[in-house]
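Suppose you are handed a protein chain with no further information: no name, no annotation, nothing but its sequence. What can you learn? This example shows the usual starting point.
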Amino acid sequence: MEEFLHYVVGKLVEYPDEIVVTRKEEGDKTVFLLAARKSDLPKIIGKGGHTIQALRTLMHASAQKKGQHIALEILE
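A reasonable first move is to predict its three-dimensional structure. Written in structure tokens, the prediction is:
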């Protein structure tokens, strides 16, 4: 899942080398923390939050197939 995030977000931003994805376990849920350059955050979030919501939907669907629970948070 981390590789997926690096790949997709890397295609959206101007500075893909500065993307940091951290995985944190919280009980039965896995939380992915995404950090990027401040100027790239609007590209990740998208207009009206549509881009980040689409990413969360894809990750959630993939995790459900595996019986997992995940969340995606953006760090500023």
